[in-house]
Amino acid sequence: MTEATIYGLAGLAVFGLGLMGVLGAADRLRRLVALNLCAGGAAMVLVASSWRPPPAAPDPVPHALVITGIVVMVSATAVALALIRRLYSLETDTDA
Amino acid sequence: MTVLLAFDLLLAASIVGLAAATLLMRDAFAMIVAFIVFGMLMALGWARLVAPDVALAEVAIGAGLSGALLLRTLAHLRGGSLSAQGGASVSAPANGATQGVNALLAGLATCALGLAYLGAPQNVPGLEAHVADAMPESGVTHPVTAVLLNFRAYDTLMEVVVLLAAVIVVWQVERGLAETPAPALGTVYQGFARVALPVAVIAGGYLLWIGAEAPGGAFQAGAVLGAVAVLGLLSRHVRPAPAHRPLARGAFVVGTAVFALVALGVAGAGRVAFEYPPAQAKTLILLIEAMVTISIAATLAALFHGRAPVAVSREETDR
Amino acid sequence: MPEFAPDPMTLAILLPLFGAIAAFLAPRAAPLIGLGAVGAMAAAIAAVGHAVAQAGTVTVPLGGWGAPLGIELRADGLALAMLGLTALIALAVGLGALSAFAGEAPADGQPMPRQRAFFWPLCLLLLTGMNGVYLSADLFNLYVMLEVISLAAVGLAVLGGTVAALRAGLAYMYASLLGALMVLLGVGFVYLQTGRLDFAGLAGAQGSPALSAAFALMLVGLALKAALFPLHFWLPEAHANATAPASALLSALVVKAGLYILLRLAEAGPFPGEAILTLLGVLGTGAVLWGGVQALRAERLKLLVAWSTVAQIGLIFVALARAGTEGLSDSWRAAALLILAHAVAKAGMFLAAGRIKDVIGHDRISELDRSAVRPALAQLAFALAAISLIGLPPSLGFIGKWSLMEGAMGAGNWHWIAVTMAGTLLSVAYFSRALTGFLRFDRVRAPLDEHRGWALADAPPVVLAGLAVGLGLAAGPILAVLDLGRPFGVTP
Amino acid sequence: MIDMPLLPLIILLTSLGAAPVLLALPERSARLRTGLNLAVAAVKVALVIWLAWKAAHGVVYDLRLSVLPGLDLHLQADPLALMFVALSAVLWLVTTIYSVGYLERGPHRARFFGFFSLCVAATVGIAMAGNLFTFLVFYELLTLATYPLVIHRGTAAALRAGRIYLIYTLAGGLALLLGTLALWGLAGTTDFVPGGVMAEVAAERPGAAQALFVLLIAALGVKAALVPVHGWLPIAMVAPAPVSALLHAVAVVKAGAFGIVRVVYEVFGIDLAQGLGVTGPLIAVAAVTIIYGSLRAMAQDDIKARLAYSTVSQVSYITLGVALASPVAAIGALAHLIHQGVMKITMFMAAGNLAEGLGVKKVSQMDGVGRAMPGTMAAFTLAALAMIGLPPFAGFISKWYLAQGGIAAGQDWVIALLLGSSLLNAAYFLPLLHRAWFRDATPEAANAPARRKISLWLAAPPMITAGFVLVIGVLANAPFSPLEWTRFIVTREFNGGL
Predict the structure, then answer these.
(1) Which of B294, C91, C436, D363 would suit a FRET pair with A62, their CA atoms being 20 to 30 Å apart?
(2) Based on the number of CB atoms within 10 Å of its own CB, is D484 exposed (0-12), middle (13-18) or buried (19 or more)?
(3) How many CB atoms lie under 10 A from the CB of residue D294?
(4) Which structural domain range is residue A86 located in?
(5) How many independent structural domains does chain A possess?
(6) Which residues of A touch C188 (CB under 8 A)?
(7) Is A73:A32 a contact under the CB 8 Å cutoff?
(8) Interchain pair B23, A21: CB under 8 A
(9) Mutate which of C170, C183, C198 to test chain A, going by most A C-beta atoms within 10 A?
(10) Residue-wise pLDDT tens digits, D367-404
(11) ipTM of the modeled complex
């Protein structure tokens, strides 16, 4: 059992948990966090795939992909949060 | 070896456990904190997998900035405070049967994926040999930076475009949104911020510079500088005003614009887009990185701040 | 293509990006910048067309590295057709947006109305993403492009700013994000198995559990993005509540991105076998029936149109899965024709629906016939678009359905023909709900005013809908374009 | 004379091109609209004459546009096509004149004339379709173009009728689509070729060939109003009078009947159809329709409903003649395609004049209308007598040939059928004529003010067409008469067959 296997499987588990959260969450914020978990899990699988048994250096390409993925995900998160905030304001306005 | 193996197993288990905890926490604030800790642990795991660049990016952006964004939104939803008020904290989860079906589906899918993962061939050579071959012509010495800004520069350009798209959408969505009391820092943190700001700026510049040879680079640097700006916003050192809007717009687009212009500009004379002349490769990459850093920092700060700067007096008419 | 400096494919992607930047920096000039950028993009696409016509398939190794290290852009007939479609729709929707978002020009110093200020940057970013998807030959790059599209599309979907639009937009965002993340994990599995990210790497790969997992993930993710039943839940509200030009872009182009990538995956890889294809056909059938029934029940015109998108997407999947004796190397043409037909007709229909709503003041189907004001040209456009979507001759939709049924019949699959027929009947039923409202007059109290409000805004829907019908006659040339560079490795 | 290879396309485009212009004309530009309408209709008649002249000299124009590999849109001006084109061109001109008068100051005239024009374009396309695929294209276009005409009044009743019309015709259209696909799949071509294209298929898979025949005839039978799929026709008569006239005489039912001609002669070939044993059932269906339509017509009090059921019956003569598989019967069938059109259009326009001028819509209100509107009623009478089959009018000619054909085909009972049908025709038309000419107007009707002055636009067209009824009957053997032309066609169709 190598590091890659351990973290790769952990990544998949995190992705699965995130998936469950996305499907099951009743709350907007929680669903978004669950999506972020999915992203983390997917990133972990990619990073795990880059690992090489020492002394070989890891494959740099998945690292670059994951960095890109992280930035993309924070952008998406920010947009979703803006929607959530706006919706909250509109909904409380109508309620009041 | 066994100690390390045990550590790896423990860490992986903690990561999964925290992910589960994130979903199970009843209070939204606790959920976000659990998510941030999850991100930190994941970064630690990536460090164990010899991926320091990714770990840095995750700490700074994935866990750090995402966490800050989530907390800021939670504060908005709770009228300025982060603590739960009454029963409004967390909505009830869906009913048991639905949850069960969801869990079953997700669990089955995960098991199938796990089996497929275990069945995948080990140690398939990736692209590292190609990267190693091309490194001398890349203009930089750090492989990850070479991939990001040269071999797969097109991806990176589009990633900056995603950031730009995000800030445009956020400005559009939040236009005319009433000002909510942003969580202000207490006096202690005010003092901390005063000390931290210059240090962080220097750290950011260093990260950018070092990225050419060692872990670090535009994204990490941009994240650190973005964090500086966030601190500035929180400590009220920076107060966005309408007059800042053109400047902000410029800062958002400068990374994308320069990147795309360079990419197109190098084309011709037998070269295609993104194909830097080897002699100028390092200069061009550094130029792009600097501009992208500015854009990332400004964009991340703007994403945190939310809406476009609006003068207080005009708020009502704008709505 | 070193003889081009810079090459037209890169330009087709980057020109709208520059346009988006300029439109964001100068909101006041945004419409002008936007139309200019679309025009420039169209010119670049024409140049791509020239190159493809000359060489069949053209590739650009961005950065000069070439696959697998670098990212390659690749264009063939299929990509070219989609690029041309995008340019056409963008131009028409852009013109439609001019008047849809025209209001009083703000005084100096006042901010622009939200819709005018933000439509163009988002639209142009969307075009960047769309063109990027058509031209990409790299899996991870496709993921990034999908995210560009997602964010721009969500921005467009919530442009109206109503609570309904924002709710639908958030649901759309989540669905889109989840779909993209599944694609990302799928890409991870591909890399695990093959160590490459380009399509060529897929083509040479042997089947394995990891690759099956990758395909399953990407298939589900893309089906979510393309709104294949039962993963369509996000679509109707998102498309129905957006402003008309945005709806037109979302339904004509954005859902096609997922479909297009699926086509490309099917072309490149050892695509999952017969059972999966049948499953896709069955789900498509579900979409045709369920979308049709929901469209019959919809109370608002735009919601009806949105549900019809669900049904039509289902039909495209039926075509992809089942229209041919030779499997995918046969059926992709029928699917491509239906994609083109649906895009043109649906864009025209959404613009027409928006115009009808503007003129009449609402879009409740049951009260369309009470209005004394009848936007005659918009109604005509709606009817023409409906002809193509129903699949009546000689429209492009008819040609698509014909090639679907011809292929299915050749393979002896009469039940897929029955599905197509059922879908056709359902579409007649739901569209005639709207058309009857246009033509009924005995419930009107006030004097009729059929021709009020002829405006430039009528032109884009009429032209698009007219094309949706008329392009059926040009099916021969369209097929010739599709076959350039022999997608799916087959000679016609 | 100069050669003009695109002539069929130009004839098609005259009305197809006029349609959008007419649709876009503002409602108030009445004169421009009328002028354009008449000009286009007249030009079309002239072009058709030119085409006929070329065709008589053996020139068959042939135009193709490839749509899918191997599948063409195909226009072909063979003599059979020309016959139908000529009928529609001439009657369109007349009906246009009538419509101008009928719709004076009515609402939605732009829409009406636009779709009217489209409707004729579709008919011309159906006539000149060189393969079943092209036929299908124009067949569907015809459905779409007539629907707005049927519901022109925009009332709930009109919309209900329109819905029923649409359900019938679109279902028929789908069946035709399926049939075309199947033909394409089985025979590899959808071309209309004298003698048919199904010989090989029928030899290998006779069952499939029979099924295809049934499917195609059922699909076309909807528009041809064969029992039991005739239900839409009587309901669709809520349409304005000129629309009914066109629907019954030229456009819709004739398109169905014409399609049956094409399918029997040029898809299957009459010999093959006989060999497959499918003509017998077709004859039976036609016979039932002839009798059933007549019986139902007798029970109708509404004039237009009576005329509608009469159409159901009369159009089936064409199917009957086609299915009898004898050249003489074929002559009768094709001649009837023209004759019935001219007769029925006269009667519908006359009925429209009664409704407009006197408010008379029912048979029971017809007492004494002959004196109130002598010209209109004279035209009506002439057409009715011809329809019954009195010599020397047009109807007699077609019935005569049909009877002869029946004998030639060894089906002597056809004479009995035709006699019976003629008696029934007399039974439902003669009471009308009796009331109109030999009874006095009821007092309230006599004192009622004329609802509307019948202008020359309305009065002239039925008289003109009544004149045609007389002329084509009397001069049946003159060159270029419908009868002569059908002889020309039939020699061509049966060349390979008999």
Answers:
(1) B294
(2) middle
(3) 23
(4) 3-95
(5) 1
(6) 42, 45-46, 49, 62
(7) no
(8) yes
(9) C170
(10) 888 888 888 888 999 999 888 888 788 888 888 888 88
(11) 0.88
